[in-house]
Amino acid sequence: MHIDLYLVLGSAVVGLLVGLTGMGGGALMTPMLVLIFGVTPSAAIASDLMAALFMKPAGVAIHWSRRTVNSDVVKFLCLGSVPAAFAGTYVMYLLGQSKAAEHELQILLGSALIIGALAILYRSIFVEAAPKGADHVAVRRLPTVAIGVVGGFMVGLTSVGAGSLILVLLVMVYPTLRNDHLVGTDLAQSLPLTLSATLGALTFGHVNFSLTTSIIIGSVPMVVVGSLLSSRSNGYLLRRIITGVVLLSGLKYVGLPTDALGVVAVLAVVLIVVVAVRHRVAAVHHDVRTSALVAQPVEDVVTLLPTGFDRDL
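RE: above sequence
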């Protein structure tokens, strides 16, 4: 079994970014494997899925210990996502591994990256969940299963979607659920989803074990390091920058000309700056309101003191 040192280093960078930002590895690892290391899309997708099994358990354990996982939502998500993920790997098998099939898979991967990036940007601008929302919600069974089916099939076919598309759809279906519970629930359901997709990839023979081993050696330790450093970094801005890179990677996959990519890159930079400034202004306003709320009870106590008390002093 051959271990590629450059691939280990590249995977370490991706693992660090995943730990720092909490973004799904599929949107970062697979483009790196295909665009930088020249790995075929089918091998990149399958190997990334298998490596993800070693990257997710620590995060899931943390969210379970913090009680930020809605087990009922996870159950109905998995009813849809687990079989759909296996079905996605089967469709990838049916496509074959010819040059034409790999090109078709590359187009599908690019489309998934574009959808995932746009979903993240849409959530940033329009449907950001409130951090002080509800801990528990009534489960909407059919929409939740449908989210699992759509997200699971996309992950099985392209390895992209668990940390982007599914999360955005969950925000739309459960807008009152707290943000940390949304993230914990999505991460918890992604583990059986990824396991199903990995079993499919192993069954249909897409996994390159040397490639997967190099990814695991580089990425898994750095995910832990990135998680430990995340509180000291500007994760919000970094996530948006990476989202822009993912969008450009997707457009590159689907064959957008270089000149057009340059125009999109400029527009993406402008949008990221606008979103970051908007987020910063909102954070400042929130801090001001919080300070006012903390000070308000003191003012109320002062105004309710009896006037005779002043004369006794």
